[in-house]
Structures are given as structure tokens and as C-alpha cells.
Design brief:
Elements (H helix, E strand, L loop, with lengths): L1 E5 L6 E6 L2 E8 L5 E6 L2 E7 L5 E6 L7 E4 L5 E6 L2 E7 L7 E5 L2 E8 L7 E4 L5 H22 L1
Antiparallel strand pairs: 1-2, 1-12, 2-3, 3-4, 4-5, 5-6, 6-7, 7-8, 8-9, 9-10, 10-11, 11-12
């Protein structure tokens, strides 16, 4: 299980932990959609297109994405990494929580920790830890964009 908690009430950064052990901090960009995190000796950058519907994660200094997300913000979107593609969708019409499906079967989730403080908890089986952090970062960014649009 991955847990992402804001570092403070107004911060855009999220402390990422797994099984109660801190593993990284996702630092959201102030100037664009995306951010950075360091994990297992690698530093990763998350970038989005102007409209924020496509995201890519690459190691800093590399142009080749290690993972991509397409259709973000739509009802269904996909994440591809390591030759594998999984699908995400909103859990329900009234919820912003995301469900991960593999071959049409629900296997994981990214749920909001708190309506007031933000953050997320995720169970994303079968994905490498950097890809799990990427998926959570994409969802956190999606939620932040939706909150900004709502005013």
C-alpha cells in the first residue's frame, strides 16, 4: 500500500510511504503540471501535456519515458509501463476515487485520504514502486486541477 500525505496544510508536496516506511516525497511543480521524486537512487520527473491529458515519467536526464498515462481526466484512462497497460476509472459518478483494472477485472485503487487535507492511499498490485508513485502523482495532480477549476 502506498500512502501520500501533504507535508503541510498548504503544501503541494506529498510524503510517500509504503507499509509505514517513508520512501520519497513527490514535489509538485509550481509552474507546470507534474513534479519530481527520488526513489531507490533514481530521480524521476513527471510531466504533463499542456491540457494535462497525457503524462510521462522519465528518469532525470533521460528522454525515454519509463511510464505514460493517457486520457487522464476522462472517465477512463490508461497507464503503460514495462510493456504492460492497465486501466483506471472513477469509482463512481460522485466519487473522485480511482479503480485500477487489469483485463477488465478490478484489482486496485487510489482513494482520497481526506476531503479537507487531501492525500491518497493506493493499492496498485503488479506495478513497480516507481510506477505506483507515478500513478498516485497523476491522481493527486488530477484532483488538484479539479479543485482549482471548481474555485
Amino acid at each position: 500500500m502506498i500512502r501520500a500525505e501533504p507535508t503541510s496544510l498548504w503544501a503541494r508536496d506529498h510524503l510517500i510511504s509504503t507499509d509505514g516506511r517513508e520512501i520519497t516525497t513527490f514535489s509538485a511543480s509550481w509552474w507546470s503540471t507534474g513534479g519530481r521524486f527520488a526513489l531507490d537512487g533514481g530521480e524521476y520527473e513527471v510531466r504533463a501535456t499542456f491540457r494535462g491529458q497525457r503524462y510521462a515519467m522519465a528518469e532525470v536526464g533521460s528522454d525515454a519515458p519509463a511510464a505514460t498515462a493517457a486520457g487522464v481526466g476522462r472517465r477512463r484512462w490508461t497507464l503503460a509501463a514495462g510493456g504492460r497497460t492497465v486501466e483506471f476509472r472513477r469509482a463512481s459518478f460522485l466519487s473522485s476515487d480511482q479503480v485500477m483494472a487489469v483485463d477488465g477485472e478490478d484489482v486496485g485503487f487510489v482513494n482520497r485520504l481526506s476531503v479537507w487535507r487531501g492525500g491518497a492511499v493506493a493499492d496498485l498490485p503488479g506495478l513497480d514502486v516507481p510506477v505506483q508513485v507515478f500513478a498516485v502523482a497523476v491522481v493527486l495532480t488530477l484532483w488538484a486541477r479539479a479543485a482549482a477549476a471548481a474555485g
